[in-house]
Amino acid sequence: MRRVCIVVTARTSYTKFKPVLSALKRRGDTDVQVICAASAVLEKFGRVDLAIENDGFRVVERIHSLIDSELPLGMAKSTSMLLNDCAAAFARIQPDIVVVMADRFEILAPAIAASYQNIPLAHIQGGETTGNIDQKVRHAVTKLSDFHFPATERAATLLRQFAVRPENIFLTGCPSIDIALPVTRKKKLELDMFGQHFGVGPVMDISRGYLIVMQHPVTNQYSAARDQVQETLYAVAATGIPTFWFWPNADAGHESISKALRVFRENRHPENIYFIKNLPPEDFLELAYFSRGIIGNSSVAIRECSFLGVPAVNIGSRQNGRERGPNVTDVNVDRNEISQAILTNLNGRVGQSTLYGTGDAGEKIAEVLANIQLEMAG
Length: 378
Hints:
Elements: E1 2-8, H1 11-27, E2 30-37, H2 48-54, E3 59-63, H3 72-93, E4 97-101, H4 108-116, E5 121-124, H5 132-144, E6 147-149, H6 153-161, H7 176-183, E7 199-200, E8 211-214, H8 225-239, E9 243-246, H9 254-268, E10 273-276, H10 281-289, E11 293-296, H11 299-302, H12 304-308, E12 312-315, E13 328-331, H13 335-345, H14 361-371
Parallel strand pairs: 1-2, 1-4, 2-3, 4-5, 5-6, 8-9, 8-11, 9-10, 11-12, 12-13
Antiparallel strand pairs: 7-10
Helix pairs in contact: 1-7, 1-14, 3-4, 4-5, 8-9, 8-13
């Protein structure tokens, strides 16, 4: 059987990988090897590796490579450590093909380790444009990759402009839309957000609507991370609308954001904000679907929420250049702008967009991974 190695480095990566893993498992003609690394194996980011195993997938390697640092230096050293460990892991498990996702800084490590060992590399979500270091990483991985699964037609066009062989580009849509599709058939929120102890904060009445916040550091503005998130904190608290606030990712500046959240929670005791570390992908998208809207700078607001028809207030420059559906309102890092945008634009569902797919990407990607002739692009 063909050995397909999936490298998961963060909770957002698993959201997108899960439909691919499920489709490969259903086929029965591939041996799926999951490597979990970086923030995916850490408790402070929700232990994604345990969620993967609970979903019935086999984790063959756990790599502790993330240096807990506020500085870009930590990102560089973490990537270096992961490169060494991925190279050793690939030598042990001997995959036939390695698959990486999107643009997180650390995916350069498995991409280089696979390429240098002459293991074909597949990249999901190449060809998109975003801000700061993410775009450089995404395009660098594109040049290292042999097979490409872009989510949009514009992304596929950019890949062709990068001199990628057209026969190695497979326009599949985004696999996280596969998870969003069943959510649209639900009639009401079924999660007991407080009884199931997902987070920390006051028990709120969400019967008249609630908000979601997911705000990460901007890597080329990491020193401003605390000030930036405080603008959002004050804006959201001032609205009085019940809010579920998710912890940031592991980029440089994340500790400043985490500290700002803790200080605000402990000193001001906001009555309308409930803080959450992590949710399973299906639960998060269900929570988003029945919300009034989402705030912050995460790609989920632009990608999955465009398909769900959930309005979004996108703050700052982190998602500059990313294709947008009609659900997104862009604002500066300013509490007054943010508050006004929340009150004006986040009032329930808007029109659905299929910009990022229709919900069948996992099957399409699995079919290619299982059957394509494995040759290095050269």
